[in-house]
Amino acid sequence: MLMCEGQYGKVYSAVNMDNGELMAMKEMKFQANDHQALKELADEIILFEGMQHPNLVRYYGVEVHRDEMLVFMEYCDRGTLEEAAKMGLPEHNIRVYTREILLAVNYLHEHNILHRDIKGANIFLTSSGCLKLGDFGCSEKLKSHATLPGEFNSLVGTMAYMAPEVITRNASQGHGRAADIWSLGCVVIEMSTGKRPWYDLENSAQIMFKVGMGGKPQIPDTLSAEGKDFLGHCFESDPPDRYTAAELLDHPFVKVEEQDGETS
């Protein structure tokens, strides 16, 4: 059964014939004998097949056919965060979800991996209550623990969630982990308002111009002072000034679970 269709392929529900469990199966098409495309798709699988984290969608394996690759992944049964946030979410939920996204992003960054397409449509909910970051079609591995100048300079991701350096940086400067943090901030806005950033602009070209000229997404008035401060650190224009995932995990905005545990 077709579950969804995205930029990098269609996703179906499937059954593991060995144990009867549901899985998600991503169908990724490529031209026959296009070895470069096959290598790029395989690289995505190699990056994530061995990774296990409660807030990352698990990869199980892959089948390669003549003109397509089938990727088998963990099945998330409660849809996407984009769908859940259509009407906006209570701030308590936003805090909890933001922390879970940060835990996933921090894990990727500690393993020298950039996601590069963090948005509500790529974050999944489960009946266990655990939120999971998935869809790694844009992800890349860094060459070293520190982001090197010019390491990534391609225009990859979803425009409304894209950091300014992804849009404007030249080949010598490029972008790195900080671009994921900007995108995370955009997801917080999405959860708060039910809309993607820059929803009032008509097309990607207008967003590129706005962000390229130094524009930042509008921080929702409904967020608490802690939430607004958190987003301020996500939306620093200069990437070195932006908080890292590890630093954001220490921010009061995402300490809600710890506080609840102390008061209960």
From TrEMBL:
GO molecular function: ATP binding; MAP kinase kinase kinase activity; metal ion binding
Boundaries of every Protein kinase domain copy: 1-254
Cofactor field: Mg(2+)
UniProt-annotated location(s): Cytoplasm, Perinuclear region
E.C. no: 2.7.11.25
Reactions accelerated catalytically: L-threonyl-[protein] + ATP = O-phospho-L-threonyl-[protein] + ADP + H(+); L-seryl-[protein] + ATP = O-phospho-L-seryl-[protein] + ADP + H(+)
GO cellular component: perinuclear region of cytoplasm
UniProt KW keywords: ATP-binding, Cytoplasm, Kinase, Magnesium, Metal-binding, Nucleotide-binding, Phosphoprotein, Serine/threonine-protein kinase, Transferase
Domain of life: Eukaryota
SMART domains (alphabetical): S_TKc
Family: Belongs to the protein kinase superfamily. STE Ser/Thr protein kinase family. MAP kinase kinase kinase subfamily.
Biological function: Component of a protein kinase signal transduction cascade. Activates the CSBP2, P38 and JNK MAPK pathways, but not the ERK pathway. Specifically phosphorylates and activates MAP2K4 and MAP2K6.
Protein name: Mitogen-activated protein kinase kinase kinase 4
Organism: Magallana gigas
